Amino acid sequence: MTSPIRPYGDTTGDGMVQLSFTLPIAHSKVADGAALQLANKMGMDPALVVHSKPMGEGFTFFVVYGRVNHLVDPSVVEVVERDYPLLTPKEANAEIKRSLRRRLVVVGACIGTDAHTVGIDAILNIKGFAGEKGLEYYREVKVVNLGAQVSVPQLVERSLAEKADAVLVSQVVTQRDAHLLNTREMSAAFREAYPEKKRPLLVVGGPRFDEAMAGDLGVDRVFARGTTPGEVASYLVHRIQDRKAS
């Protein structure tokens, strides 16, 4: 079992940390004082503003260095580990061809009022993300990208029409937990529209999602920020193989 870890510089049970943030206040000595006040209220004592600069009209960016008296315990951190091998596009294509003997159909969209397609496009479009080609690059994958502001009924209808194997949904707008509400609505609609064993894989992603919430949201997988097209493709191949085997 791992022991709790103290921040850097610990000798007496406390340590030093660096924190950066922006406040809606014009750059001034008063702004620096407000930043110190906030740092103190967050448990940094003593704290020192080591950098501040204006960030547009009426905003200031700060870097604060200070002492804290908190421990972190890696043994109680819960994460979702990748439980499948990463495949190259060539390997993924070969496995799809062997397992399905047809192209894998993927339908993607941003649902609700979300108009931010950067996330879904990074996974689906051929230009991809982080140096990896998107799913459109995979010759054994048929991609149907519905774009932004797609209603749940529209998504279900198109998925049925395309005989989708997987549905990928990106959610960036998170005010009032809209991403969670939309995802639960989507999963309920797919459960109603499909027999359990015929339902496509439901995959959601976005910067505010918790990867451990898949079961609570009624989806098969949640991907957080930084996910690459290769990770998504490998997961889809892995799960499709599992389904065929069962």
UniProtKB/TrEMBL annotation:
Transmembrane segments: none annotated. Residues 103-246 form the B12-binding domain. It comes from the Bacteria. SUPFAM superfamilies: Cobalamin (vitamin B12)-binding domain, D-lysine 5,6-aminomutase beta subunit KamE, N-terminal domain. InterPro entries: Cobalamin-bd, Cobalamin-bd_sf, KamE_N, KamE_N_sf. Pfam families: B12-binding (PF02310), OAM_dimer (PF16554). This is OAM dimerization domain-containing protein. It comes from Nocardioides aestuarii.
